[in-house]
Amino acid sequence: MYGECVMGEEKKSRQDQGAVTVFPISCLLWIVCGVVVGTTLGSPLLQEVIDAAYGYRWNYVDRCIIDEGYFAGGFCRTPLNCSCGDVDQIDEIHINDMTEKLFEERYAYSNRPLVIRNATLDWKAMEVLDYDWLKTQYLRNPEVLEESWDNCFFKCYKTSEFKSLADVFDISSERIFSMYAEPWYVGWSVCQDSVFQELSQLVSLPKFLSNYHAEGNMWIFIGTPRYGAHLHLDNDLDLPTWQAQISGSKTWYLKPPPECAATCPGLIQTDMHPGDMIIVNTNFWMHSTKVLDNGISLVVTRQLS
User: Fold this and answer.
1) Which of 230, 285, 242 shows the shortest CA–CA distance to 87?
2) DSSP character at residue 38
3) pLDDT tens, per residue, the chain with 305 residues
4) Which among 148, 235, 230, 150 is positioned nearest to 187, based on CA atoms?
5) Which residues, 6 or more positions from 96, have their beta carbon under 8 angstroms from its beta carbon?
6) Fewer Cβ atoms within 10 A, N terminus or C terminus of the chain?
7) pTM of the predicted model, to two decimals?
């Protein structure tokens, strides 16, 4: 009797060992889904999807927006305050209608861009400042172009052939005056004191800005039709800038930074002509330009404080 019991238990044990556990197909599907979801949530793919939805790449460690090659001033920047919800155009006001009070109340402390028509027609720069004047100032003394300071910057826009400012003053007259020549567009800070002093005598702020003064580097932007500056953000500036169109014509395009795309307008634009001045916060507005078919474009700019 005892032996039969033992043999029965051994037989049952062997049957249990040979049993096969069967899982429903739905269980396998849930396992696969769990692996896929877990892998996705734990991979860079999800971050890329979120970044694409927001329109910018976010640094989750330093909590800042990562540079995608469109802003100056560092690898990462803090999000901007989206104070442009009521801006749907670039305002245009004739110099005769512009007053100190109007500027203070509507533009001085806002991100509202402004073009003042005929603002600089009385500047001496409108009579003498051109490519040849600049070339004379920079080449009259060989030491001028050799000056190198911390505030000396030279930027090429689609013009990789120019490696330095000296190259700009070594081009043929055809590249300057012919509409059919290869276009070019460059900008540089006037860091040479002798040139800065001469230029400063040619420009002055309009009367409605009598309570302000120009600050920081003076910049020259010059180039021929069809070229201009790519879309970018001046994250290295702290103040709004004024830019005066001395010669030629140029279209300005303004776009809010990506973190403000949901609350601010889309692309807005305006054309600048000789004598016009634009005042814009270029460390808020992403901006680009294109020189129009009206000869060589020359612009002088500084920050406004």
Assistant:
1) 285
2) H
3) 444 444 455 555 555 555 566 657 776 677 766 656 555 555 566 655 655 555 677 877 887 888 776 666 567 888 889 988 899 999 999 999 999 999 999 999 989 999 999 999 999 999 999 999 999 999 999 899 999 899 999 999 988 899 999 999 999 999 988 888 999 999 999 999 999 999 999 999 999 999 999 999 999 999 999 999 999 998 877 789 999 999 999 999 999 998 898 899 899 999 999 999 999 999 999 999 999 998 999 999 999 99
4) 230
5) 118
6) N
7) 0.81
Q: Are 254 and 269 spatial neighbours (Cβ–Cβ below 8 Å)?
A: yes
Instruction: Tell me the CB-side half-sphere exposure of residue 293, using CA atoms within 13 A.
Output: 4
Task: Tell me the residue type at 104.
Answer: E
Only one residue has tokens 């016009």, namely 276
| Residue with the two structure tokens 């120009």 | 214
For residue 88, give the amino acid letter.
D
> Could you give the 3-state DSSP secondary structure of residue 149?
coil
Which contacts (CB < 8 Å, 24+ apart) does range 135-140 have?
A: 135/169, 137/194, 137/195, 137/198, 137/199, 138/165, 138/169, 138/192, 138/195, 139/169
Contacts 24+ apart (CB under 8 A), 192-201: 192/138, 192/144, 192/145, 192/147, 192/152, 194/137, 194/141, 194/144, 195/134, 195/137, 195/138, 195/144, 198/137, 199/125, 199/129, 199/137, 199/300, 201/124
